[in-house]
Write a structure and sequence with these properties.
Outer membrane efflux proteins (OEP); elongated; 4-stranded antiparallel beta sheet; alpha+beta; 10 helices; two-stranded parallel sheet; 66% helix; 459 residues; 14% strand
């Protein structure tokens, strides 16, 4: 029995220790930070961006105004109630005496009105409000696209900076090995101290370059987070996914600006917004002209009164029931002379229409120019990338030979470091041309209405 008790205590102690370890590990083990894809970055930015939110609020306002314009088709109805109290000297016809006496009265009425004709103002106002509502939606899409493209660019800049840090880190690791080799040769008296110091100086330079690259990476990461409006406490652990960009590099495209432009005319929201704005301004001319035409409206009313100062002394209910007075009428309003107000409104509306036509032309013209520039960027970036690849391969081959010679002691450190610096420059140039090319492809896709995504290229 004693042995069994000891066994149970041992198991209980082990259970307590196990629970304590589990809790401790759970507290000290950091949660795995989220890896953000470019799609997630863009969607987060669209949810948090202030300009997007303001545009959506404007959409809601246009929707409210549209519903208000439609309500003008229906008759209005209003009610009123008035209670009066008054005091005056009243003479009793029988006794001839005068008494200061108060009386009260009640007036209740219902009134309704409806526009029959006003130069098609209601119809045109409804149509214009519907167009303005649709135009506001497209304006929101313009803002969303701008935010999305900025986020994509910032995302690629982070990827570029990360790859730059990796390349410099690899160079530092290589230089460390070469410095160790130079140190051994210095001990053996094979090289002079100046050769050793040359390698050491180059290593210090590369470490400085690494510090600069890491600083730039931090800046690029902050830029991306700011574009996303990302303000979470764990922002220091912010990291992004690394898409496989090999399939996106040098697709040897031959962009046709005219074809892309024709596609963009049918899909870009700024074009739709400009077209709808022009339609709205044209309807504005008809709205202004309605001020030149007569208007016709119908009105109806129902009222009843009660007064305590009646000869019959009838009750409140009796008077309210028997004093009901219905009324109906038609009102015609004919503009004769309004100090040129209506004609001025028409003239201004026509100028607004001309301005909206010019704006539509300008939007399409700017779109055409942007597409032509994007197409040329693709062509130039492809040529630049091919040249960078060719230069890099040639320099790398030369560098590999120089590295072998340096390892064998055939080449001195000065000549070797010249080759290494040339190689680092070619590597950096290749990296820059690679990301410029990828971004130029994405910009051209953007004008073609394709999504800004790497969803099929995630490693």
């Amino acid at each position: 029995m004693l042995q069994k008790s000891k066994t149970m205590k041992t198991r209980f102690s082990a259970l307590i220790i196990s629970c304590f370890v589990s809790i401790t590990v759970g507290i000290n083990t950091p949660a795995q930070s989220k890896i953000w894809s470019v799609d997630e970055c863009i969607q987060y930015a669209l949810q948090k961006n202030i300009q997007v939110q303001q545009a959506q609020v404007s959409n809601d306002i246009y929707g409210i105004e549209m519903n208000y314009a439609k309500s003008a088709w229906y008759p209005s109805l209003s009610g009123s109630a008035r209670q009066n109290f008054s005091w005056s000297n009243q003479t009793n016809n029988t006794t001839g005496s005068t008494v200061f006496k108060g009386t009260d009265g009640t007036n209740i009425s219902l009134n309704s009105g409806m526009t029959v004709y006003n130069g098609n103002r209601i119809r045109n106002n409804v149509k214009q409000s519907e167009i303005n509502y649709e135009a506001a939606k497209y304006n929101t899409e313009v803002i969303k696209e701008t935010v999305s493209l900025n986020v994509l660019n910032a995302y690629l800049q982070v990827l570029f900076a990360e790859e730059q840090v990796k390349n410099i880190s690899d160079q530092i690791a290589s230089l460390n090995e070469q410095l160790n080799l130079a140190a051994e040769r210095l001990k053996l008296g094979v090289i002079a101290n100046s050769d050793y110091l040359q390698v050491k100086s180059q290593l210090a330079t590369e470490r400085q370059s690494l510090a600069t690259a890491r600083s730039q990476l931090a800046i690029n990461r902050i830029t991306l987070m700011q574009l996303m409006e990302y303000t979470e406490p764990e922002a220091g652990d912010f990291s992004i996914a690394h898409p496989n960009l090999d399939s996106l590099v040098n697709q040897k495209r031959i962009p046709d600006p005219k074809e892309v432009y024709q596609t963009a005319l049918g899909v870009k929201p700024e074009v739709k917004n400009a077209e709808l704005s022009k339609q709205s301004s044209q309807i504005g001319i008809e709205l202004a002209r309605s001020g030149l035409y007569p208007s016709l409206s119908m009105n109806a009313g129902l009222s009843t009164v009660y007064s305590s100062n009646t000869l019959s002394g009838s009750s409140f209910g009796y008077q309210m029931k028997n004093n009901i007075s219905p009324a109906i009428g038609i009102t015609a309003s004919i503009p004769i002379y309004l100090n040129k107000q209506a004609r001025t409104n028409v003239a201004v509306a026509r100028k607004n229409s001309e301005n909206s036509e010019l704006n539509e032309y300008n939007v399409k013209n700017q779109l055409r120019k942007s597409i032509e520039q994007a197409s040329q960027d693709v062509t130039s970036s492809q040529i630049e990338y091919e040249a960078s690849v060719e230069a890099y391969n040639a320099v790398k081959e030369s560098y590999d030979v120089a590295s072998e010679k340096y390892t064998q002691g055939i080449m001195n450190s000065v000549d070797f470091l010249i080759q290494k610096t040339t190689f680092i420059t070619a590597q950096s140039s290749l990296l820059q041309s690679k990301y410029r090319l990828i971004f130029s492809y994405k910009v051209l896709d953007f004008y073609s209405g394709l999504p800004l995504s790497f969803s099929s290229n995630i490693k």
